[in-house]
Amino acid sequence: MKNKRFSRSEMVKNILDNLVREVISGGAVAYIRDKVQRFDDGSIPMRKWSLCNQMIAFFHGTRDARTFNAWKEAGRYPKKGTHAFQIVAPLFKTEKDEANEEEKRVLSGFTLINEFRIEDTEGKELPYQTRMKELKIDELPLIDVAEKLGIKVKADLCGTAEGSFSPTEKIIRMNCTDKQVFLHELSHGIIAEIKKKEKVKLDYGFEEICAELSSAFLGSLYGVEIDLQNTKAYIQGWAGKGHVAWKVIEAVGWTEKVYNFIEEIREKFQNQKEEKEMKIFSTRNATKSAKPNVLPFKTEDFRDRTQIYNPKIRKWVKRDSKTGQFTSVKGDGKPFSRVKIEEYAFGEVAKRLPDEDLPPAA
Q1: What is the mean pLDDT of residues 322-336?
Q2: Is 68 helix (H, G, I), strand (E, B) or coil?
Q3: Would the pLDDT of 86 be above 70?
Q4: Is the CB of residue 153 less than 8 Å from the CB of residue 137?
């Protein structure tokens, strides 16, 4: 029995059906947060700051800020001319409880601490900076689609998240090298384009389910290794404690939209590329087939020119037939191309003109 050959649409449908069947089967599983090694492994001090201070650092455009002494310990120093920004730190004092004579810490006030952004320092490369270099953006799957949508991809710190997508900046920030994470964030970018086109809104949690299901599907379709257990746990986490079947089935429609969007944009740019190549090909062929004009002037100009052979110098001489003046001599001893040869010999022509009117032949 011959193996059945599936069409592209049948193959896509089978992958999606098997994926959905796998996700909605079985019980709840735990999301393994340590499966991906993030660039930010939790060693950045400001991750222990209060949310208020982290927001202050965020508004100053950094994800890693430290005091001068902290940077010194890390082998880095603030660049000349840079300035620190300030965060608020609480001050505590110890008081003795008169009732039970126990000591306790009491908030006594606040102080300001100067912090320097990593962008304003130089020196020893930090461990997460080394890990960031492992991200090969050009090797990410469907990176061509991201580029066609004007989405930039960069290695960055995203706290506890493996990646993020900003629809306003059109930037995917990668906090790891995992390709499935990239497909998840790219799916967010494509869903944002579809929502804009169809003028619809999605619940935040449901959009996360759509993006994760799409990333697992795209990974399966384009040969990217995916972790289905984490996909199941991720979707179950956003769908809630109840059964996820209905949410997943609802998300299938958006997964198909994401796939169709990718195929359409690829086909569009492929057609544009082919048209451009065909235009270049046609132009080159037209240039090759066109007969080159070997003459730098019009053919009519030759009607006023003739040539005769001068036996003394053994060269052909061109002459203006109206004035009788010689204009040029052919150096190679061969006659001029497309110039009429006079019927009279050189001696006969010389006899017809006074000696003083006959210019030298060379």
Answers
A1: 81
A2: helix
A3: yes
A4: yes
* pLDDT per residue as tens digits for the range 162-205: 999 999 999 999 999 999 999 999 999 999 999 999 999 999 98
User: CA 247 to CA 241: how far, in whole Å?
Assistant: 12
Which H or E run includes 167?
none
- Count of alpha carbons within 13 angstroms of residue 226, beta-carbon side: 27
First to last CA, the chain: 92
Dihedral sign, Cα of residue 183, residue 184, residue 186, residue 190 = positive
Distance CA 188, CA 120 (A): 32
CA dihedral of 2, 8, 10, 16, whole degrees rounded to 10: 130
Q: Residue 56 is inside which H or E element, if any?
A: helix 51-59
Q: In this model, does residue 261 exceed pLDDT 80? A: yes
> What HEC string does 176-192 produce?
CCCHHHHHHHHHHHHHH
Distance (Å, whole) CA 152 – CA 140? 12
Q: Mean pLDDT over residues 276-300, rounded?
A: 55
* Exposure b/e, 45-80, CB count within 10 A at least 16 = b: ebeebeeebbebbeebebbbbbeeeebeebebebee
Please give the radius of gyration of the chain, using alpha carbons only, rounded to the nearest integer.
Answer: 40
Token pair 């746990």 is at which residue?
233
Q: Is the pTM of this model over 0.85?
A: no
Those residues whose C-beta lies under 8 Å from the C-beta of residue 239, and which sit 6 or more positions away, are 205, 209, 247, 248
